[in-house]
Amino acid sequence: MTYVIAQPCVDVLDKACIEECPVDCIYEGKRMLYIHPDECVDCGACEPVCPVEAIYYEDDLPEQWSEYYKANVEFFDEIGSPGGASKVGQLDTDHPVVAKLPPQAEE
Ligand code: F3S
Ligand code: F3S
Which residues pair with 3 in a beta bridge? Predict the structure, then answer.
């Protein structure tokens, strides 16, 4: 099981979640961040600090964002399991689910 980042993160990228993660498993894409499903230890520390409530335990992911489970998993198809986001840095790519979205308006 894993935590998942959903659509509210897109074009916001607050990054408060990164500070909380004890295993450095939250990776930065171009328009949102992604949680590594195999590196996440389900500690839950990231979930309450996101100001836009983008983070959910996979079983609690709202129906309208159900494809974000797949987006978080498949984002790592090419990079595998680097074992730490800070050494990887920002990746200049996004999952197609995210890349196809129009710019998300600021509130
Ligand atoms: Fe995104 Fe929220 Fe983290 S906006 S970067 S999931 S704190
Ligand atoms: Fe996973 Fe979030 Fe903890 S990504 S390891 S639940 S801080």
Answer: 57
Mean pLDDT of all residues belonging to the chain: 97
Give the pLDDT confidence score for residue 105 in this predicted structure.
76
Can you say whether the dihedral through the CA atoms of 82, 84, 88, 92 is positive or negative?
positive
Q: Does residue 46 have its Cβ closer than 6 Å to ligand 2?
A: yes
What's the gap in Å between 18 CA and the centre of ligand 2?
Answer: 9
State the closest ligand 2 atom to the C-alpha of 26, by its place in the atom list counted from 1: 4
Q: Give residue 107's pLDDT band: very low, low, confident or very high (50, 70, 90).
A: low
pLDDT of amino acid 32: 98
Distance, in Å, from the CA atom of 30 to the CA atom of 40, rounded to the nearest integer, reads: 20
Q: Name the residue of 4, 23, 76 whose CB sits within 8 Å of the most ligand 2 atoms, as the mutation to test its pocket.
A: 23
